[in-house]
Amino acid sequence: MCGIVGYTGPKQAAPILLEGLSKLEYRGYDSAGIAVRDKDKEPVILKAKGRLKMLAEKTNNGEAVPGNCGIGHTRWATHGEPSELNAHPHKSDDLCVVGVHNGIIESYIEIKEKLIRKGYSFQTQTDTETLIKYVDYYYKKYKMGPIDAIAKTMVRIRGSYAVALMFKDYPGEIYVARKESPMIIGVGEDESYIASDVPAILNYTRQVYYIDNMEMARLSGGEVTFYNLNGDVVEKELKEITWDAEAAEKGGYEHFMIKEIHEQPRAIKDTIGSLVNTDTKRINLESIGITEDEVKNINRIHVVACGSAYHAGVVGQYVMEDFARIPVRVELASEFRYRKPILCKGDLVIVVSQSGETADTLAALREAKSQGIKTLAIVNVVGSSIAREADNVFYTLAGPEIAVATTKAYSTQIVAFYLLAAEFGRIRTEITELQYQAYVNEILTIPAKVESILDDKEQMQRLAAILSAQDDIFFLGRGIDYAVCLEGSLKLKEISYIHSEAYAAGELKHGTISLIDKGTPVIAVLTQNSLYEKSVSNIVEVKSRGAYVCGVTYYGSYSLEGTVDQMTYIPKIDDHFAASLSVIPLQLISYYVSLARGLDVDKPRNLAKSVTVE
Ligand code: AGP
């Protein structure tokens, strides 16, 4: 959560900081601030509560703030309410150290007490002010350089952070440190940049360094030097970002979410193409580094993730168990990490994450690795912490996803599971060669079928108009349809603020059906042939209690016309892959409901795109 940018070089810093922050607003958007230095003058700190545009107005898009070196921050409040006072940058009282921070300093109360005893006072409720003043304390007490003062602080604090600091005595320089929160450093001609995520600097440079955990760096013009905690210089390789800058822009769409919904055929196609040779129609696991022998020796699979990535894992569980006959357990990373999971030789832990920075998922990955278990990450962001720490990586090729509500990343994650499932099934001879070919052929049809659903989205707009006035909406399904309902329900509540629950249809009569009343909206997904009649019975049950039922099923399956209130049809596909199609109407419904309620689709309240704190 929170976005950090920084710039030092020949250009005016503030407009670059503001532009960079605008690309990171998805990470947090309750307040923002910048600190900019004009040569060796003291830094000027400007902050504003609310969206970044408030700060942009205050500073004339940064034009009104002179200086060539600065840091900026867009905040998602953890410690202290969203306010101008709590907004970053924070400073030591004499402006000796000024800084921005992403993450949480867990030990901030004890540090604060210690610093109060040393004569420090605190103006804000943030953990960040404590961190800045702690650095200031060591810097002054031991008269040490910035790197030594930061290192001394880092070994004494607990928590996660990406921090950028400016020291009054070091004009034109920015110092950064990182532990578990994302940060990259970009380099241009005589200039350098810092950012929490790639889109913030894509307009200026594609040459980046990835700073590792427990490392620091000093930026001065185009010079970047990395240090470990002992203060030794660490050599790093410059990497090139291959993302297209346009991919991180709205490109004519009203919101990132609808743009990203429309990018799904391309994202799915690219992800399939990364593993499937379209001539031979065979899946090749070479690029993710898993051998056939390893696949044969897998005893159990644990899929661990959060939110929508977890829901993708639930779809993956059904398909992998069916194709490869390997027991799969799907678990929320926040539960897995603390329950002392029993992992055995022959287990494979698959972590799933769009950002590759989700704190709980990263911790779960580390837990598995600490037990010597092989790990595979299905991850979207190249070079992210999860991608770097997992033994094997399957990159989904969704491209940059900006809207807080994930769509294209989820779609590529489920496709990643299909490919693994089919290949694992073939290798373990749990599916025949003929079935394998049929499955690969079906997977290859997904992008065009998604496209055809997107071409026909008016119906979803009409339905959204009806649903937008509701207080509670239920999603019902069985098997893979239930897995999709979990995602549909999360999508809806996340951006429409309508209470919603997803239920395995067979569970309904064990309690929840008491909530069904005249007019209660129920969205039922029915794509699984073997479960169709069972689901129909559940629909009839809610219908007879007065529910307003909207069904999602295949074209050609018209038996529910007349029973339910609204039907949405999707193209026919092998049932195993139906989630890729049935989720599209659910995403569109959420989007249009949010729009109809006049909400901020891309930046829903209380949320941030990347959850780097637990
Ligand atoms: C879904 O729309 C979410 N915004 C959220 O549930 C997300 O999927 C979750 O936080 C996991 O994020 P990750 O994929 O970046 O790990």
What descriptors fit this protein?
23% strand, single chain, binds 2-deoxy-2-amino glucitol-6-phosphate, 7-stranded antiparallel β-sheet, 614 residues, 18 helices, 27 strands, 8-stranded antiparallel β-sheet, alpha/beta
- In round numbers, the mean pLDDT is 94
End-to-end C-alpha gap: 10 Å
Q: Give every kind of bound small molecule, once each.
A: 2-deoxy-2-amino glucitol-6-phosphate
Question: What percent of the residues sit in helical stretches (DSSP H or I)?
Answer: 25-40%
Task: Please give the count of helices.
Answer: 18
- Largest sheet, spatial ordering of strands: 3-2-4-1-10-9-11-15
Shape: globular
Residue share in β-strands: 15-25%
The main β sheet shows up as: 8 strands, antiparallel
From the alpha-carbon coordinates, what is the Rg to the nearest angstrom?
25 Å
Residue ranges: pLDDT <50 for 5 or more in a row?
none
What structural class do the secondary elements suggest? alpha/beta
Count of DSSP E strands? Answer: 27
Give structural notes.
Helix content is 35%, strand content 23%. With 614 residues, it is an alpha/beta fold. β21, α12 (385-389) and β22 (392-395) form a beta-alpha-beta unit. The protein is globular. α7 packs parallel to α13, α7 (264-273) runs antiparallel to α14 and α16 (480-496) packs parallel to α18 (579-596). The relative contact order is 0.09. Strands 3-2-4-1-10-9-11-15 form an eight-stranded antiparallel sheet, covered by helices on one side. The protein has 18 helices and 27 strands. The structure holds 2-deoxy-2-amino glucitol-6-phosphate. 2-deoxy-2-amino glucitol-6-phosphate is lined by residues 306-309, 353-355, 358, 361, 404-406, 494, 610-611. Residues 306-309, 353-355, 358, 361, 404-406, 494, 610-611 line the site of 2-deoxy-2-amino glucitol-6-phosphate (AGP).
